[in-house]
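worker-03 picked up job from queue 'complexes'. Input manifest follows; three sequence lines, order preserved.
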Amino acid sequence: MRLLPMTHREGASGTAPRWRLLPRWLGGARGARPPDDGADPLLVGLTGSGARRADALFKGITLLFAGLVIFLVFGIVGSLLYQSQEAWATLGIGALFGDEWLPGGQPAKFGSLPLVWGTLVTSFIAILIGVPVSIGIAIFLSEMAPPWIRGPVSVIVELLAAIPSVVYGLWGIFFLAPFLYDSVYPRLQANWGWTGLFTGQSTGYSVLTAGILLAIMIIPTVSAISREVFRAVPASQREAAFAIGATKWEVVRKAVIPYGRTGLFGAAILGLARAVGETMAVTMVIGNRNAFFGGLLEPGNTIPSVLANETYEASGVHLSALFALGVILFIVALLINIAARILVKRVLKQAEVAK
Amino acid sequence: MIAADRNYLLRLWKSRVLLGLCVGALLVALVPLLSILWEVFSRGIPVINSDFLFERQIYQFKEGGGVANAILGSVYITGLASLIGIPIGIMAGVYLSEYGHGRFAESVRFFSDVFAEFPSIVIGLFAYVVVVGVMGHFSILAGSVALAVMMVPIVTRTTEESLQLVPNSIREASLALGIPKWRTTLRVTLSTARAGLVTGAMLSFARIFGETAPLIVTIGGSLYFAGSIEDTSSALTYVVWRGATSGIEAAEIRAWGAAALLLIIVLVINIVIRFVTLRRQAKGGAL
Amino acid sequence: MATILGDSGGSKVKHLALLSVILMAATAVAGCFGSPPPGEKPEVTLNGAGATFPAPLYDVWQGRYTAEVDENVHINYGGGGSGAGITQITARQVDWAGSDAPMNANEFSKAPGILHIPSALGAVIPIYKVPGVGDGLNFTAQTLANIFNGNIAKWDDSALVADNPALAGMNNDITVVHRSDGSGTTFVFTSYLYKVDPTNWTTPGHKNWPNNLGIGGNGNAGVSSGVQQNDYSIGYVELSYAASAGSSLNYGRVKSHDGAFLEATADSTAAAAAGLSTLPAGDASWEGVEILDQPGANAYPIAAMTYVLVYKTQLDHAKGTALVNFLWWAIHDGQSDCAPNGYAPLPSSAVTHNEATLNSIVDASGNRLHM
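worker-03 finished. Artifact:
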């Protein structure tokens, strides 16, 4: 079978001039159609108009699938909104932003503020701890490490990303929480109690534990992006700083980081987005208490955690309120995500231009 | 002489200390990793024996049997999810790479990127409404739909990246020979990029193999081997979650074993991917 | 699949990876169409959900039934709490449900044709984890009510020390652990508190925990692990959960109607049902049926019957038959599993009553299913 298509010019069927091949009603000559040259059916779509049609069809199919991606996003959001209608209607925004989440109370209360607060505080702790560590790792990998170390070390750091979140939770329940409770929290309460952050009865299954676990989980993402940002800093910046006698740290601090500042900020926000949406590890160590917490060492709860715990058995207004929580969570995560993407793209574009 | 300059010495030490902190940061990341690996493997591997791997779970609250039905459940669910999600992702990635130069493509890229970071529980809720709600009960299909939806943005992104790495000269050579664009894309571009595509597929497979939150509200849990996609089923991640939160020792032991299995499978896939990528890069370029 | 440039040198690893992905996908598809080999009796799967109170007992039952009586019947019990069980059986999403709380009037009206079948007796016990203190702390309805509504905040409160000298000087805050899901165990516990001490516990018994004190756990298992994980905590679970937690937590005694501090055992639980006289018909409402705070020297005060909820008309003949046979076995042979597992067997009057209920179950054509 010939792979290469035959062109009319090669005279598969004689040398009929092209206009003669037009349909009769357009002026073509009767009987001028090239006889069927035993064309291989497999060549359909490979030549001439058939190829154009097939091209259009293929493009259309792939376009459809690409559109499916957008459709899915809107479908998910749409279903959330649709299912939460009942809650918005019967409870009203006031109730949904009340300060107590007690679906089983009499009367039932669906105030989401304690959960929103828990989500934000745990995520905030996560980036407070995780971002400096990630940037430190990125500095090490891009500025300090000899080339032969970079590969293996970055692989190892990325292994942290591969660990399933439920395994993080398992480790959190049986190792991290008891360890923090026995060895760290008493010292925190004793020495740092003046900050007012560590009041209340401490427990291993608390907001701070969840924040620490989240910090560990976002390290691979934030450090990978930070590395990209550092890599995008042109060598000229570093060289200029070295040339005027800066120490290595000063080069990093005064030349590299300011240059990539926007991108690092974007990486941090991306880490924040992941922390906000994390479910399993958080729900296993946060203590599951649906109320405002006094100190970081007390139990709390987050929106994803509540969704995982209560959706299974909820019905009626309760289920609808859970979907409303989903909408709130989604909006928060979306806004954070958009901000991060814009920032990271901007810094990487800057780098392209500067080169 | 500069070295005698006190100020400079101070700065030098400050630099060393702060850079040392960066190494410290690395250790801060490594210590939990090592701890997790140690805890999971030291507690989980002793649990794994032939019974554990090949017997179904007999009791929820007592010892007995193994997690074979959960292993099979995980394979079914992620396998079916891959079957649904990977083709969609590849097709969308092809569009973005080969035809995507306009505003529509930009918005697809944007939504796909945002989509990739959705909280997984929200996607589980979506499947709860769309599949469980319609079918009336939990099922493997619901879990697979949720996981497939999670796979699509990842596969789209990796496909687009892999295809972008294929040099234009190859496409142009094919087109110059008269091969139409659709066939060029299918036969030439995709083939050339197939290593990247496989990597992307494996990456997304590993990622959803470890997911739990969407499964909690879709698959329902079971002690038996699932017979069809309409059945409820257990899964490895589900076993870990249930056992860890049960307060019952037999279930906790089972959870450690399942977690060890999970880690082994997920880490192996990830290491293989890295290894393949590094080798490819060592060979020179993306090809 | 050669390109016009020739094979690009794909490594064996990549092919292997592709092959394994395809294999896995293929197994997924194959699994969709699996069916038992011809000649074997078709498998029947009975999916259940609901109360975690009897879950350990149902777990033992399903294992025994499949192993000893009929290996073609697959019995799954999903947990989720009595609330979830009632919701799901009402929506016919499961074949059978468990609940420790009988359906209230509202729920009963939404599930026409539902039957209540008591399956066993169980006891709700206070569990706690206090460093330095073992089993056997004494509680009364008053102290429990005040602990769980927040009035008693520390372990060395005078009311507690009065019954437990060992607690003197223990100036630690009490962490309360309660159910976060709709729970029959909560219903039993709060009904008891309301019945005996309505002054301090002002809300009637309900499946939903009425305040946000302390920590919430999912299922009896969640409360059990919550207590295990937190020093100076107290919670309430069914007896069998304390046994399976081993030494990680302790359980206490409760003052009975007659004034003695009793431990929950199979005997003391069974004694609580001694005064059970007439039971409602299987298809009637069972709202208000309880065996709390019963008189008797050895009658444990927080005892309850747990119910299986099924429909009188079973739409699937095979499933219905399997279900009826399983339940018949459970209320007879299965009762021997109660005492060793932290429950108590039904009194014989209840068993006879259940037999009549089971015999009333019919299929869609009206044929009786139990032979």
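worker-03 released lock.
Chain A touches chain B through 93 residues (CB under 8 Å).
The two ends of chain A are 50 Å apart (CA to CA).
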